[in-house]
């Protein structure tokens, strides 16, 4: 469905009360809000329609079904990350900026990680987000396959720490580690701050810098 | 609840038909089967009880609730990964073996990744799995905090590729990339095999080796 077909319903039905036009942006925002609150399984066509104050058949007039909704959600998050400015940066700074933005976007939307990690990428904004990252490495002489591998690994690191940032309380408690036969782990955990979000953040940033260093090694 | 209290119900109620004893192992297997099939949200106390052929109150006699069920599930997967043999290996081989086993276990149970990544680790087997990894690095002179960071990053890489291994079809199609303004990505994707599971596997193994090399850099 092209963007020009979207948002025309209110004009066709002048007798209905005025409501915000049913744009792709509005549909994506509603779907993302439902996923953030209740997860992907709760994000049915009916739930999105209800949130937008329309009936499900009206929504089907604008998006073909849940896979199309998911494309819109993926685009919305990709747009939060996408920064063509990285094309002007050396590859290491591009990787740092991309990785940080990627992590932060998914830390805001952890309930999207599983479904977006296991379904095909089909939307233009995500594909261009990837292209931009790959071009900024390619321009600095990177082989394509190696740049792609760097992209995948960076994504997975970022997503894992985005989950951790959202964990319910501390993932590990020193006393429990000591009690259950893990003395070295107990000692390490005791020396870390007790704020799970801060821990996830500092661990990710540290590993991200290390990850970038790793790609200075040839081959 | 200690293990000795478990599995005694059938002896107390001799009039009931014989069924497998309600052990922690049986409860964990039933819960994991439900999560594998339908996700964590479907894994209610009632659903686990039904699968075991008992009523929910009987199940509550053995486990306190969903958090306790989750501890059992985490233990079951940790047991699939745990290999004290890594203590005999140099740190790089230990990391390779641990990372591979971790990835394979979660590739078999992708529906557990989100919930296990966002809830506290409290069970003895997982804590000892971590301890064993940390000890094998520590024994080779690693600083504890650095070893712990290596563990976290390794987990997240493995989990991300475990998701990818389970993706519905190919994550990226070359023709679509070309069509939507991502020519370099299209070229890279065209040169890769078209088997998503094989792609996930080879990308993970390649990045795992690179990840291990990265920790040869001091600091």
UniProtKB/TrEMBL annotation, chains A, B:
Region (Disordered) location: 1-23
Record keywords, A-Z: DNA-binding, Transcription, Transcription regulation
Residue ranges of every copy of the HTH tetR-type domain listed in the record: 21-81
DNA-binding region(s), residue ranges: 44-63
Record SUPFAM superfamilies: Homeodomain-like, Tetracyclin repressor-like, C-terminal domain
GO biological process entries: negative regulation of DNA-templated transcription
Single GO molecular function: DNA-binding transcription factor activity
PANTHER family recorded: HTH-TYPE TRANSCRIPTIONAL REGULATOR RUTR, TRANSCRIPTIONAL REGULATORY PROTEIN
Protein name (Swiss-Prot/TrEMBL): TetR family transcriptional regulator
Lineage start: Bacteria, Bacillati, Actinomycetota, Actinomycetes, Micrococcales
